Amino acid sequence: MLTRNVNYEIPTLKKLITKCQKAQTECTRKETDYENLAAEFKTKYSEMCKQYGIEVSYDHMGLGYVMIMHGTRLGNAAFILIKGEIISGLQ
After folding, report:
1. CA distances from residue 52 to 32, 56, 69, 85 in whole angstroms, order as listed
2. pTM, to two decimals
């Protein structure tokens, strides 16, 4: 039984550990790439909003934000959005 473990089980487990470590490294790399892309798109979104006179400020988690539109057809307006849904509008 001990011989079987030494000859088959241990090498198989070592291969599995190596495979899992490679997968973890790849996932960490992808996570970093996606975080960088998200930051880039957030910056582009803010820049585009500025072009249209929309002031955007995010909460600490980046999920909800306040949009203030100056000089629009509606006049000055402010909207509080959480996860893309307007929860209140002020004028």
Report:
1. 31, 11, 8, 20
2. 0.57
Distance CA 48, CA 53 (A): 9
Q: What is the three-class DSSP state of 13?
A: helix
How many Å apart are CA 56 and CA 54, to the nearest integer?
Answer: 6
In this predicted model, what pLDDT tens digit does every residue of 70-86 receive, in sequence order?
555 445 555 555 555 54
Structure tokens at 73: 């057809």
Q: Which residues pair with 40 in a beta bridge?
A: none
Rg (alpha carbons) of the chain, rounded to whole number:
25
pLDDT band at 27 (very low <50, low <70, confident <90, very high): very high
The distance of Cα 28 from the centroid of its chain, to the nearest Å, equals 14
Q: Which run of H or of E encompasses 59?
A: none
d(CA 68, CA 54): 6
